[in-house]
Amino acid sequence: MDLRRQMLDNASQRITFKLQEYGMAFDLEQPSIYVDSKITV
Length: 41
Known about the structure:
This protein has one helix spanning 2-21. By secondary structure, the protein is an all-alpha fold.
């Protein structure tokens, strides 16, 4: 679960940085909620 959360946080940060490169910015008012569930592939 920790690895999954880290991967989602990393992806979110990369998307945010890429949007900032294009001059776009936004604020997320609500925190992310992680649900402990099995990962299916």
